[in-house]
TrEMBL record:
Ranges where the Alcohol dehydrogenase iron-type/glycerol dehydrogenase GldA domain occurs: 10-177
GO MF, one annotated term: butanol dehydrogenase (NAD+) activity
Protein known as: Iron-containing alcohol dehydrogenase
GO CC terms: cytosol
Transferase found in the keyword field: no
Domain Fe-containing alcohol dehydrogenase-like C-terminal: 189-379
Source organism, top-level taxon: Bacteria
Pfam families: ADH_Fe_C, Fe-ADH
Record keywords: Oxidoreductase
Database matches in InterPro entries: ADH_Fe/GldA, ADH_Fe_C, ADH_Fe_CS, BDH-like
């Protein structure tokens, strides 16, 4: 194991009725001006907005709405939120949504405390914000695990880059599986595939033999696959949704990553594909994973074989990769670029740009060349 410092920054309230039971107490230690942040309106339709707002007002909070946070949140949206937070002297940000709303709020929280351009500060000067407004998260769509970590993925439309930024983790996260009841089936499955991807990407980084992270990652993969299969049979199975909600947080709360390096090359490809196409994150990963793994399966044969056996009941490393591809198909997830919802036509020229601009992971099973990345992307056409 490599050296590490680990701390859980986020208090979790899990279970049906968690907001009613715990939200008032969770926000009681913060000032009265609360920014209530959400996406394109699902929380208004399903009643979560009304329930949360009422709890906040009954707790004596003055609520300011920050809404229309889009999937794959943009840096421009972050600036809008930060300006609003400054203007309204916001004391606390409550993000109510999926990974997009939570990520946007994490960076709003930091940008509200500085006049410096956070993107330049982080990406060019490699300095990270030391101060941020406190924030909490109520998860309404699971998969990213954004509610329990200090990273955020933001799209800079001007620069055509979608990248991870450092921020403060939410002080608390409310995880009520019932709050996900209205999430459409395809989003539930896409989110769950993102969780599976996080566990696989962590597992395929370099690690000491027999380390516990690999064991936990495999357990999360197995549990995610089992519960995705349950949802394929009955999408309203709330027990399966609850299991996946916690798998999601577990895969990205940092516990799997201590003392080791991670891979996350598929994520780097997907993020840059997202910068050009605005595709759904979990669906982009579903398209990319099998092609990427066919390229690196020989470089981590032992690990691939173990995954094949333990997660998919397949015998060999290669059979495991094909079992993953079959599982993606059986879930109804996209398997080709052309099946992704995209703002532009996905052409070889677009994929060349993605290959030329995505992050290349220097460790993982093997460092890829930009030409090989282009080949992988083209194999997904
Ligand atoms: O905007 P609304 O109307 O709320 O609709 C959303 C959105 O269309 C809908 N939704 C959410 N809760 C719902 C609901 N619809 C009905 N009922 C509900 N209860 O779901 C759609 C997708 O939401 P979004 O937040 O975009 O999805 P997801 O949670 O998959 O987040 C994706 C973003 O997270 C980033 C991704 O790159 C992407 O930008 N990631 C963040 C990570 C992190 N911070 O740790 C790690 C991940 O690898 C990922 O990169
Ligand atoms: Zn992800």
């Amino acid at each position: 194991m490599q050296k590490f410092v680990y701390e859980y920054a986020t208090k979790v309230y899990f279970g049906e009725g968690a907001a009613k039971e715990h939200l008032a107490a969770a926000v009681s230690g913060y000032g009265e001006r609360v920014m209530l942040a959400y996406g394109g309106g699902s929380v208004k339709k399903n009643g979560i907005y009304d329930e949360v707002k009422q709890i906040l007002e009954a707790a004596g909070k003055k609520v300011t709405d920050f809404n229309e946070i889009m999937s794959n949140p943009t840096y421009a949206k972050v600036q809008e939120g930060a300006n609003l937070a400054k203007k309204e002297n916001i004391d606390f940000i409550l993000a109510v949504g999926g990974g997009s709303v939570i990520d946007c709020c994490k960076i709003v929280a930091a940008q509200a405390k500085t006049d410096k351009d956070l993107w330049e500060m982080e990406m060019t000067d490699h300095q990270f914000p030391s101060d941020a407004l406190p924030m909490g998260a109520i998860v309404t769509a699971f998969g990213t695990g954004a509610e329990m970590n200090g990273g955020a993925v933001i799209t800079n439309e001007e620069k055509v880059i979608k990248a991870g930024m450092a921020a403060a983790a939410p002080r608390f996260a409310i995880l009520d599986p019932a709050y996900t009841a209205s999430v459409p089936k395809m989003q539930v499955i896409s989110g769950a595939f993102d969780t599976l991807s996080h566990a696989m990407e962590t597992y395929f980084g370099n690690s000491d033999q027999d380390n516990v992270s690999d064991e936990v990652a495999l357990a999360i993969m197995k549990n995610t696959v089992v519960n995705m299969k349950r949802l394929m049979g009955n999408v309203d199975d709330m027990q399966a949704r609850g299991n996946l909600m916690w798998d999601s947080a577990m895969a990205e709360n940092g516990i799997l990553k201590v003392g080791r390096v991670t891979d996350f090359q598929a994520h780097q490809l997907e993020h840059q594909l997202g910068a050009y196409t605005d595709c759904n994150h979990g669906q982009g990963l579903a398209v990319l994973h099998p092609a990427y793994y066919r390229h690196i399966v020989k470089d981590a044969e032992e690990k691939f074989t173990r995954l094949a056996k333990e997660v998919f009941g397949a015998e060999t490393a290669k059979a495991g990769v094909e079992a993953l591809a079959d599982f993606i198909k059986a879930c109804g997830l996209p398997t080709k670029m052309g099946e992704l919802k995209s703002k532009v036509e996905i052409t070889p020229e677009v994929l060349r740009k993605v290959a030329n601009t995505c992050n290349v992971i220097k460790c993982g099973p093997r460092e890829l060349s930009r030409d090989e990345i282009y080949d992988i992307l083209m194999e997904c056409m």
